[in-house]
Design brief:
Distance between the termini: 38 Å
Radius of gyration: 19 Å
Order of helices and strands: EHEEHEEEHEEEHHEHH
Structural class: alpha+beta
CATH topology of the largest domain: Alpha-Beta Plaits
Number of strands: 10
Length: 280
Amino acid sequence: MTEKKRIALLLEYDGTAYAGWQRQANVRTVQGVVENALAKLCGEPITLYGCSRTDGGVHARGHVSHFNSHCTVPPERLYLALGTLLPDDISVLDAAIVPDTFHARFGSRGKQYSYYIWNNRFRSALLSRYSAHESRALDIDAMHRACDYLIGKHDFRCFMAAGSTAKTTIRTLYKVELSGETGGLLRLTISGDAFLYNMVRIIAGTLLYVGLGKFEPEMIEAMLASGDRTLAGKTLTAAGLFLDEVYYDENPFPACYNKQNNLAALLAGQESGGNDEFLE
């Protein structure tokens, strides 16, 4: 028998048809589907360890996981072979042999998420699976100003949904940026060291309220100071949320992460809007 190796996978998936990442009994999950495919390919039971347990309906274009296996298929062929066993809404972007010390979840130094809002009078049939819809005009300038209050190290308890098991609610956000214009597709990009349960979706909902004039940008400071969830905005739909990247001291997939996708550009048939910097 060949020596057991630790192999990391870089996955992209449309989470619409799944009850999240984590394996659960009697429901379809991303982890369950990929593990079953790996078991067929490797000829042995496989347990995947994911970087993040995304909720049902949440998408990913940079989800990292790892597994231990005696699999004899080399990484440069494994991701292609595995792709033939997976449904169309899950893609394997890359595979790499990593040190035994690598851990997809506990080795993470941070993550980047994007949240999309289709801000147009008319609902988009093409974007409904990948964005929240807001038909009213938004004050984009006010939303930009509100973003600045979120950057840095804060207690983000007010942006955490009930049911969290986090030991601390202190988090550091390195980037909170909004791109796009009213009447089109808006992209909120947030990167940080860690995230609380539904944190990005609640921040997106709060910024949406700022854009609608329900909140002033300066109110973000009071929300953070209070720790009161009821003072922040609503939790937006899971459909608009994407896990973009996971940051490690030594990234197993640097070539793939240098090709950061932009949903708006892809749907418009244009080139990507550029790369995001690594947080190291």
